[in-house]
Amino acid sequence: MKAPDFEYIKVTSLEEAFEQLAHHGESGQILAGGQSLMAMLNLRLAAPGCLIDIGGVPGLREIRRDGETIRVGALVTHRQLEESAEIAASVPLLAQAAPHVAHLAIRNAGTVGGSLALADPAAEYPAVAVALGATIVVQGAAGVRRIAAADFFEGFYRTARQPQEILVGVEFPVQRSGERAHFSELARRRGDYAMVGLAAVLGFDRNIVSRVRLAFLAVGDRPVLAVNAMAALQGRAPDAEAVRAAQDALARDLDPSADLQADPATKMHLARVLLGRAVAQLRQPQ
Ligand SMILES: Cc1cc2nc3c(=O)[nH]c(=O)nc-3n(C[C@H](O)[C@H](O)[C@H](O)COP(=O)(O)OP(=O)(O)OC[C@H]3O[C@@H](n4cnc5c(N)ncnc54)[C@H](O)[C@@H]3O)c2cc1C
Fold this sequence. Notes:
Layout: E1 7-10, H1 14-24, E2 28-31, H2 37-42, E3 50-53, E4 63-66, E5 69-73, H3 78-83, H4 85-90, H5 92-97, H6 104-109, H7 112-118, H8 124-132, E6 135-140, E7 143-148, H9 149-152, E8 153-155, E9 158-159, E10 166-173, E11 179-187, E12 194-205, E13 208-217, E14 224-225, H10 227-233, H11 240-253, H12 264-282
Parallel strand pairs: 1-3, 2-3
Antiparallel strand pairs: 4-5, 5-10, 6-7, 6-10, 8-9, 11-12, 12-13, 13-14
The chain binds flavin-adenine dinucleotide.
Flavin-adenine dinucleotide is lined by residues 29-37, 39, 74, 101-102, 106, 110-111, 113-115, 117-118, 123-124, 166-167, 193.
């Protein structure tokens, strides 16, 4: 199938993009890497009157450290993240997640901002952002808003971004000393969307878990922070008993629906497997 007719405008500044968004109203839609949007157009799942291409807007392609924060511009590609020494050193969970996004050709063009704005519940970065307590930065004609990742994802492909706002970047805290990160997912084939995925961070004080963040993807309408499983690990040695308690607690955290990848029982089983593997990996000295 071919895309319906649409107007195309390539803007060169955020101000111009805001003007175009205001001018076109509901029929205007931002185009970034096009790796999701063009497919949606071709499948006739979206029919915007005008695509507003922000690919030429300067200043949105940077990865920058600012104290204990790493700022990632909206147009940074998946591949850029994968190859960034700064991301590998400072936000290893994100570095581990990036290669799981689709295939290389898609990672070369697809952007962080596009992935977060789309808010596919099976996407990697929303779960990473929630696990790390990242801040999503959106901007409109009225100014900038900073939204905690946990509040940004509101449901199935739904976010707190207003239609007239552009997602301009995301801020990740630098990994603290004593913390370890582990991203893993199970997919039918490498590059496919995950059946289930887990973004995990554990902090240790000697052998005791002093901080724990577990965000699952592809188990709900948005990334799910497994608060009961986290409580089961917090303050304990990460031994087999604690892991089993955390796995059992997942029954209270997750209520997955069936999707094209797996049924709910399979997803629950895989979530338990991923949790066990993550703790086993993270309790090893690195
Ligand atoms: C075969 C295939 C497999 C894939 N597998 C995965 C996968 O495993 N994991 C995964 O996470 N993704 C996957 N993707 C999606 C891919 O990662 C996309 O690159 C990403 O989701 C969207 O980024 P983009 O820059 O291409 O956005 P676009 O396609 O340009 O836009 C996507 C949506 O976000 C909006 N948007 C884009 N940027 C902004 C912005 N800065 N501000 C406001 N709105 C914006 C657009 O209006 C549109 O609604 C896959 C895609 C394909 C085609």
